[in-house]
Amino acid sequence: MPSLCSSTLILQKNLTDSELTDYLAKIKTQTLLAYGVYQIEADGLELFEYIKGDRDSIMGLPVKDIINYIRQYKK
Asked: What is the C-alpha to C-alpha distance for residues 20 and 23, in angstroms, rounded to an integer?
């Protein structure tokens, strides 16, 4: 059975202290301690210059790859 893997390249912005403080004020401490702390589906997208690749991978699961994998073996 082939393995599923995904890679994504992200470049974080060079943020000022003020920008970081503003970002941190928007999110709960509980979020900082959780997986998926970037939260690119929400305000976390502001942290990056660019994201090249599958955003789902950053959020923890390469959903599109898994769907394609299942479709391939469902036939």
From this structure: 5
Task: Give the residue among 4, 20, 14 at the shortest CA–CA distance from 57.
Answer: 4
Q: Return the bridge partners of 12, or none.
A: 48
pTM (two decimals): 0.62
- Taken as a whole, the chain contains a residue count of 75
| Rounded CA separation 6/2 (Å) | 13
Give the CA distances from residue 10 to residues 27, 38, 54, 65, 75, in Å, rounded to whole numbers and listed in that order: 21, 11, 10, 19, 35
Summarize the confidence of residues 43-69 as an average pLDDT. 82
